[in-house]
UniProtKB/TrEMBL annotation:
The keyword Oxidoreductase applies. GO terms for molecular function: alkanesulfonate monooxygenase activity. It comes from the Bacteria. Keywords: Flavoprotein, FMN, Monooxygenase, Oxidoreductase. This is alkanesulfonate monooxygenase. It is an enzyme of class 1 (oxidoreductase). Belongs to the SsuD family. SUPFAM superfamilies: Bacterial luciferase-like. InterPro entries: Alkanesulphonate_mOase_FMN-dep, Luciferase-like_dom, Luciferase-like_sf, SsuD_RutA_monooxygenase. Residues 10-331 form the Luciferase-like domain. The keyword Flavoprotein applies. It comes from Fuscibacter oryzae. Its EC number is 1.14.14.5. One of its GO terms (biological process) is alkanesulfonate catabolic process.
Length: 387
């Protein structure tokens, strides 16, 4: 059975720094609110998403705390939360991870974020050069993994010193919750091959994704390991291709050239992330070159840092593009759309049937067997039709 025969593992996104219907404007923007995040998580849980990514930055709610809150209001949903080496000790992060895995009954996924914004890292007290951050991360996860897997760790390293560290309570998952990670530099690929279970790429054109997958596979083989692969994408799915492209245009319909220039300046000057620069080069801040590959649209990246591309089209079109990524080895999608509550429904209702994802719970019966069509929700209920 080929990789394209298997349904994708499909996660959604919790927009913990805020949400909206349009990029680059306050019009119809939604402030970050815990009750709203709960609505999105519960919808994702019900619709068939396997999990949610909770982002991390100074502009976001703290991911471990938000995941613990959302776990109490969901049943099956997994939570991909960030471990940021250097912002706390590996022993402390191990306690956080073990506790969250326990209180969620084994629903924790761990997203390694080594860094990207030099300015933000400096605010957290991290001043290591780009590649040296990966040396630090290797030592960090020597301790972190050992604690979660055995309850004990000891290291007298260059960056990390943990003398006879202990973890009292093990996680639910064995040997520990899986590690996810994304990075585009050579140092990042070497780190991924030696450390993680799943490597994540942002939504680049398939040929570029194929190159990254090959590089990480080579690194993993050198370490005697295997790694699986996922992709982080936005989605604009409508009933027809024409409607989808019109929705993409509307998303940036209030976006000014001045706002684009300001966002691009920040991305160029405050980040040493290779992946961020690859995202930026797809469009170079220009509105007229946004379809960078068939149905892959870079309009989100005009103002958004991080993942900046969306798949745009009808369910059949987007499913075909996803199968192209699956053929390369992608088995996981971390998705989002604006606004996230409504688009969670739209993607699930339109795209999931095309890619073989079914809701985790069968719907309740709406009749005693009579054929019905939706009648607008009036007092008489649905319209019964001839069998």
């Amino acid at each position: 059975m080929t990789s394209t025969d298997q349904p994708l593992d499909f996660l959604w996104f919790i927009p913990s720094s805020g949400d909206g219907s349009y990029l680059g404007t306050d019009f119809l923007a939604r402030e970050g609110d815990p009750d709203y995040f709960r609505e999105i998580a519960q919808a994702a849980d019900r619709l068939g998403y396997s999990g949610v990514l909770i982002p991390t930055s100074v502009a976001c709610e703290e991911s471990f705390l938000l995941a613990a809150n959302l776990a109490a209001y969901t049943q099956r949903l997994k939570f991909l939360v960030a471990v940021r080496p250097g912002t706390a000790s590996p022993a402390y992060y191990a306690r956080l991870a073990s506790s969250l895995d326990r209180v969620s009954r084994g629903r924790l996924l761990l997203n390694i974020v080594v860094g990207g914004s030099a300015q933000e890292l400096a605010g957290d007290g991290i001043f290591l050069p780009h590649d040296e951050r990966y040396d630090h991360a290797h030592e960090f996860f020597d301790v972190f993994n050992s604690l979660l897997e055995t309850g004990h760790a000891h290291l007298d390293g260059k960056h990390i010193k943990a003398h006879h560290a202990r973890l009292g309570l093990p996680p639910v998952q064995t040997p520990r919750p899986p590690l996810y990670f994304g990075g585009s530099s050579g140092a990042a690929h070497d780190f991924a091959g030696g450390r993680v279970e799943k490597y994540l790429t942002w939504g680049e054109p398939p040929a570029q994704v194929a190159e990254k997958i090959a590089s990480v596979r080579k690194s993993a083989a050198a370490h005697g390991r295997q790694v699986t692969f996922g992709i982080r994408l936005h989605f604009i799915v409508r009933e027809t291709d024409e409607e989808a492209w019109a929705a993409a245009d509307r998303l940036i319909g209030h976006l000014s050239d001045e706002t684009i220039a300001a966002a691009q300046e920040v991305q160029r000057n405050q980040s040493d992330s290779v992946g961020q620069e690859r995202m930026r080069r797809l469009h170079d801040g220009r509105r007229y070159r946004l379809e960078v590959s068939p149905n892959l649209w870079a309009g989100v990246g005009l103002v958004r840092s991080g993942a900046g591309t969306a798949l745009v089209g009808s369910p059949a079109t987007v499913a075909a593009r996803l199968r192209e990524y699956q053929a390369l080895g992608i088995d996981t999608v971390i998705a989002s759309g604006y606004p996230h509550l409504e688009e969670a429904y739209r993607v699930a209702e339109l795209l999931f049937p095309e890619i073989g994802i079914t809701p985790p719970v069968a719907p309740l019966r709406s009749s005693f067997g009579e054929k019905q069509v939706f009648g607008g929700g009036g007092h008489g209920g649905n319209v019964k039709t001839a069998p």
